[in-house]
Amino acid sequence: HRREGEEGPGVGADAVLNVYNDVEVEVDEATEALLLSRGLDPILSRHIAHLFIRDPLVIFEGATEVDDLSSTEHFENIQSTNWQSVRWKPPPPSPGSHDPPIGWRTELRTMEIQLTDFENAAFTVFVVLLTRIILAFDLHLYVPITKLDTNMKRAHARDSVFTQKFFFRKHMATDAGEEVEGEDPTEGGRE
User: Fold this and answer.
1) How far is residue 133's CA from residue 128's CA, in Å, rounded to a whole number?
2) In which domain, by residue range, is 61 found?
3) Which of 5, 26, 41, 89 could pair with 105 as two cysteines, CB 3.0-4.6 Å apart?
4) How many domains does the chain have?
5) pLDDT of residue 164
6) Which of 29-38, 56-65, 170-179 has the lowest mean pLDDT?
7) pLDDT (tens digit, 9 = 90+) per residue, 96-130?
8) How far apart are CA 125 and CA 170, in angstroms?
9) Is residue 141 predicted with pLDDT exceeding 80?
10) Distance of alpha carbon 183 from alpha carbon 18, whole angstroms
11) In this structure, are residues 104 and 24 in contact, taking their beta carbons and an 8 Å threshold?
12) pLDDT-derived band of residue 187, with 50, 70 and 90 as boundaries?
């Protein structure tokens, strides 16, 4: 089982969007059952149970005896050794009562290398602007995970932007629930 590359199940609160989780993933059944029995939602339970199919790659000295009720260190150790293009990050416990909570985060990890600090900064600014546009216009950019995996594989080819076709949504402004049943919500190719 690869730790990098292919995406696992997506995470989201809207059950309609679960149609895009079109990949079968291996899960740690005991972890999934425990999470479900404690009231965690099925989509999130499956996502976390998928992370627990592997042992962590690294265990830091002194980090085996950690209070899991006050620290997310064990969870982060498992999650940080699964390298997917987007990583959901739950809020860490607040270090002090006067510190503001950090909140939920999403980490975009698609670029493998940037040649300069300027390019790193430019990509960071681009991602911030892109997220603001997506939120402001309520854009729906969802594609099935299988098509996302295909896009990622094609993107690794030399000059892929010129030589490959990528899947992308036809209708970004429509609600996911409004698509015609059975219609493929993606379209291959570039215009």
Assistant:
1) 9
2) 1-110
3) 89
4) 1
5) 92
6) 170-179
7) 667 777 888 888 777 666 678 898 888 889 989 99
8) 26
9) yes
10) 15
11) no
12) low
Closest alpha carbon to 151 in 162, 165, 170: 165
Cα distances (angstroms) measured from residue 110 to each of 7, 28, 139, 142? 11, 26, 20, 16
How far is the C-alpha of 142 from the C-alpha of 178, rounded, in Å?
13
Q: And the tokens for 99?
A: 């510190």
In a domain, 53, yes or no: yes
**Length, in residues, of the chain:** 191
pTM confidence score: 0.67
Q: Is 42 inside any structural domain?
A: yes
- Write the CA distances from 111 to 30, 125, 161, integer angstroms: 34, 14, 14
The position carrying tokens 């425990």 is 34
Name which of 10, 11, 12 is nearest 23 in CA terms: 10
